[in-house]
Amino acid sequence: MRYIGEPDYRHGSPHTLGILISNLGTPDAPTPQALRRYLREFLWDPRVVEFPRVLWWLLLHGIILNTRPRKSAAKYARIWGEQGSPLLSITRAQGQAVAERVARRMYGPVKVAVAMRYGNPSIAAGLEELRRAGARRLLILPLYPQYAASTTGSTFDAVSHALSRWRWVPETRFVTGYHSEPAYIEALAASIREHWAQHGRGDHLLFSFHGIPRSYLDQGDPYHCYCQTTARLVAEHLDLPEDRWEVTFQSRFGKQQWLTPYTLETIQGLPDRGVKALDVVCPGFSADCLETLEEIADESREAFLAAGGQRFSYIPALNTREDHADALAELILRHVQGWPEADENYDAKALREAGELARARALAMGAKN
């Protein structure tokens, strides 16, 4: 293996704190070809599909990648905007907002990059951007509030794989989740209150989270528990009685049992339970994407109305809300404590002088730069 080195490294160069903000990913375009590339990378991840590799390769390449891309492309086309994928454009805006907040609170230089676990910009590309900026300390923040092996764990794998190719490996910290962070919970509650104030309040509030196979929970994945905790804390902030809210799981894939109750089946049954006006929020998604804009705001709405419901209201993800950016910035600032850039005694002048002295010594010993 050839490692990524720094043959042009200049001795005495200042160091930077690098922050990588990542999300799940998106195809490059709403086309079958782009979806095939994206789904091949996504569905081949062993963290996502825990299945014997040889058999899964045959199913993936023999059936799924020959049928699913065209269907998925049509769905992506319905949500694609002028700036491309909503998930990518929103995540980039989130990164900029967080970078501005963190920079104001830091004492030393900091660089923020945005990456996607699947698709572009890749985790490796985001890390390379930080490496070229001189980052010797890295904080990784996957935008998954509730830890799951198939999301947060997979991001850790990708970061580890990318860094395994670096010759000079930086200090690295990894945020594994923030499902019960007070600022995150309050931002969710505030977004729901504001939505109610503007659009009215439904009879029932449904917390819909992305599903995972039930077997993952049985083998110790904490995701289900974290989803329940998030929903309960938000409901408490809203003073909601237990019979006015519930948790469901969406985006089932394949024939095996996933976490239940299923979102679509629950929504279809709510009118028979007397719920005529339904509000749905998806706290596990930090940015609106195919699963919220198409699966919930579109398909689930149609299913509810067809089942006898009268009003369906999707409450948007936190996206670029100010309180969301504040919460993420606070999370970052807490996790970088103890590093030089977060120290109020950071002395840029002294570090620059020390760097110049170190470079002079290196040059005297024969260094090229």
Question: Mind sketching the topology for me?
Answer:
Layout: E1 16-26, H1 32-44, H2 53-79, H3 86-105, E2 110-119, H4 123-132, E3 135-142, H5 149-163, E4 171-174, H6 182-199, E5 204-210, H7 214-218, H8 223-237, E6 245-250, H9 263-269, E7 277-281, H10 290-306, E8 311-315, H11 322-335, H12 348-364
Helix pairs in contact: 1-2, 3-11, 6-8, 6-11, 9-10
Output the keywords.
single chain, 369 residues, alpha/beta, Rossmann fold, 2 domains, four-stranded parallel sheet, 12 helices, globular, metal-binding
Number of helices: 12
User: Which fold does the CATH topology of the largest domain refer to?
Assistant: Rossmann fold
Strand content: 15-25%
Order of helices and strands: EHHHEHEHEHEHHEHEHEHH
Distance between the ends: 26 Å
Q: Write down the overall mean pLDDT.
A: 96
Largest sheet composition: 4 strands, parallel
Pathway: Porphyrin-containing compound metabolism; protoheme biosynthesis; protoheme from protoporphyrin-IX: step 1/1
GO molecular function, one term: ferrochelatase activity
Organism: Ectothiorhodospira mobilis
Binding site for Fe(2+): 210, 291
